[in-house]
Amino acid sequence: MKNLAFETQVVHAAQQPDELTGSLNTPIYQTATYSLKSLLENGMTAENIAKTYTYSRTSNPTNDILQEKIATLAGAQDCVVTSSGLGAISSIFATFLRPGDHILVADVIYGSTQTLIDDYYKQMGIQVDYVNTSNLDLVKKAIKMNTKIIYTESPANPNMKITDIAACAKIAHEYNAILVVDSTFSPFPIQFPNKLGADICVYSTTKYINGHGNALGGAITGKSDLIKEIKNKGVKIYCATPASPFNSWLTLNGIRTIDLRMKKHSEVALEVAKFLETSPYVEKVFYPGLESFEGHEIAKKQMNGLYGGMLAFEIKDGINGMTKLEFCQNLLLCFDLITVAASLGEMESLIEHPALMTHRALSTEDRLKVGITDGLLRTSIGIENPKDLIADFTAAFEKAKNM
Ligand SMILES: *Cc1c(COP(=O)(O)O)cnc(C)c1O
Predict the structure, then answer these.
(1) How far is CA 192 from its chain centroid?
(2) Which residue, by CA, sits nearest to atom 6 of ligand 1?
(3) φ, ψ for residue 54 (rounded to 5)?
(4) Which residues of the chain have pLDDT under 50?
(5) Which of 34, 39, 248, 286 is 20 to 30 A from 363 (CA-CA)?
(6) Which residues have any ligand 1 atom within 6 Å of their CB?
(7) For residue 2, what pLDDT is reported?
């Protein structure tokens, strides 16, 4: 099915009627183990073992179908799905990092990924340097002979900072390092990091890929040899993070509308971003689709003309005599439609305060250094009518000012 358009692949890739029963929906193989009788009959050769299901921590048919689907949609050779996005990231690090190795990490990343690196890998003898990966000169200066991985997010959580993926891949490959990109904020059909040169791309499928907010999951895509290694080491043994077949089944349901959803998220978020840009309460809007946004030119090049549903904005200081933090705390209590919640990528709009919520584990100094101020709010714009969202923002700003 290689020559089909993306919209067609989204519906059909990896999902044919079940051979045994004709079931149109993919069955959930909710089983831990499998009968090995046929393996005994056919002979326990390495080849037979490799193609036989033995135990669901190693492989499971429902997970396999989701893997094939995601690999196809991502334009990657192979994929492995995991129990969560962070489980996927842990499995990559556990597979490739050893004491004495160096990892170069983007200075703005998902909060728990940073905690994983600082609280675990740093303690285990991995050298860690944080760098602004959107500045390629800094990346070139910071990379070392023992750099095993360059790790980045684009757009980055929470301030949407854009990194030039193709250029970073080039730098990584000059040093024999692996470029890993967390593309959770911009899944297909917006961004295809593997096609841009990233060796490994990682997603929290919990977010846009499932899109329905009903299952945790992660996915890793990339070249077959790397994915095979992650599958056999990180996912199967070191971290033991296999996906649950039921969650994979829910994700298979959700993924079929990802093309429709990402186009709609992008359309609605652009409207909201334009509105916020003109709001007297807002100092600055961080959305890759805005021409005023610092990373817009690179985003235009690598995001396929769509900019997704994630946006952040900075509140003005001193509104009605309030500090940024006071105003934000009031504001979060004032929305009717938009929900205060830490996740993202769902059909309903969500808002959160990174300094108080998703990035609270960072020290004040560390978060201020990368622009996570007391006035920064992050929103995941859903697929509602933008007029209703703008009305909710307008009313909430007014109400918060008078609290
Ligand atoms: C949510 C998220 C993760 C972690 O995924 P889980 O499924 O919650 O484990 C990693 N990276 C980014 C950018 C995320 O938004």
Answers:
(1) 12
(2) 85
(3) -120, -40
(4) none
(5) 286
(6) 84-86, 110, 113, 153, 157, 182, 184-185, 204, 206-207, 216, 218, 344
(7) 63
pLDDT value, residue 336: 97
pLDDT at 43: 93
Q: Return the bridge partners of 378, or none.
A: 312, 352
- Find, among 24, 21, 5, 2, the residue nearest to 252 by Cα: 24
Residue 401 CB partners (closer than 8 Å, separation 6+): 281, 319, 320, 327, 330
Structure confidence at residue 51 (pLDDT): 87
Cα-to-centroid distance, 14 and ligand 1 (Å): 25
Q: Report pLDDT digits (tens) over 57-69.
A: 999 999 999 999 9
Residue the block writes with tokens 């094939």:
68
Atom 7 (ligand 1) nearest CA: 85
pLDDT in tens, 110-166: 999 999 999 999 999 999 999 999 999 999 999 999 999 999 999 999 999 999 999
One-letter amino acid at 347 equals M
Q: At what angle do helices 324-332 and 386-401 cross, to 10 degrees?
A: 130
Atom nearest to 216 CA in ligand 1: 7
81, 89, 112, 205, best to mutate for ligand 1 pocket (most atoms within 8 Å of CB):
112
Please give the number of the atom of ligand 1 that sits closest to the Cα of 345.
15
CA distance 157 to 269: 16
Q: How far is the CA of 44 from the centre of ligand 1 (A)?
A: 39
Beta bridge partners of 222: 78, 200
Q: Beta strand pairing status for 218-222 and 200-204?
A: antiparallel
Q: Which amino acid is at 208?
A: Y
Q: Does the N-terminal peptide bond of residue 193 adopt cis geometry, omega within 30 degrees of 0?
A: no
